[in-house]
Structures are given as structure tokens and as C-alpha cells.
Amino acid sequence: MQIEPISSGNLPPGFDASTCRSVYVANIHPQVTEPFLQEVFLSTGPIEGCKLVKKDKATYGFVDYFDRRSAALAIVTLNGRQL
């Protein structure tokens, strides 16, 4: 799994990255479920919701936290973990 913050060069005008509470999760194994993804990311803070997207040969997801500190902690602590 690869977790990425949104690159500042691709942000829309007026977007404030310091208030972002969402984490993009890439390279997820196709057999991973939404409840499992949520369970893994709960380790860094309370989650507002998560979405798993399965398309052809790619599986990725989005995890939405209630606060940006939890999102930042997820990026730091879970990046590179295999799912």
C-alpha cells in the first residue's frame, strides 16, 4: 500500500492543504475489504468514513478523518505498509 498526500502543484485555487483530513491509499491488494481498511486506519485516529475503489487492475481508497492530525499521522506511520 502506498499513502500519498495530495501534491501541492495539483491543488485547485483556494485549497488549504493544512485543513485536509483525507488520505489517498494506493496499491491495495484486491482482496482487501472496506471494513479491513477502516480497521487498519483506525489505529491513527477516529475515522469519519472510508471508500474502497476497485477498477480493472487497480484497487485504491480514501480514508476521511475527523481531524487533520490523524490524517497526517496515518501518512507518516502507515505509508509503505502492505495490505
Care to describe what's here?
This protein has helices at residues 34-41, 68-78; strands at residues 2-4, 22-26, 47-55, 58-65. Helix content is 23%, strand content 30%. It has a domain at 34-77: 2-Layer Sandwich (Alpha-Beta Plaits). The mean pLDDT is 83.
Descriptive tags:
RBD_domain_sf, globular, 83 residues, Nucleotide-bd_a/b_plait_sf, RNA binding, 4-stranded antiparallel β-sheet, RNA-binding, RRM_dom, Alpha-Beta Plaits, alpha+beta, 4 strands
Describe the main β-sheet briefly: 4 strands, antiparallel
Whole-angstrom Rg? 12 Å
User: For the record, what CATH class of the domain at 34-77 applies?
Assistant: Alpha Beta
Number of alpha- plus pi-helical segments: 2
Mean pLDDT: 83
The general outline is: globular
Q: Architecture of the domain at 34-77, CATH level 2?
A: 2-Layer Sandwich
Keywords: RNA-binding
InterPro entries: Nucleotide-bd_a/b_plait_sf, RBD_domain_sf, RRM_dom
Pfam families: RRM_1
Domain RRM: 21-83
In short:
This protein has 83 residues and is of the alpha+beta class.
Topology:
Layout: E1 2-4, E2 22-26, H1 34-41, E3 47-55, E4 58-65, H2 68-78
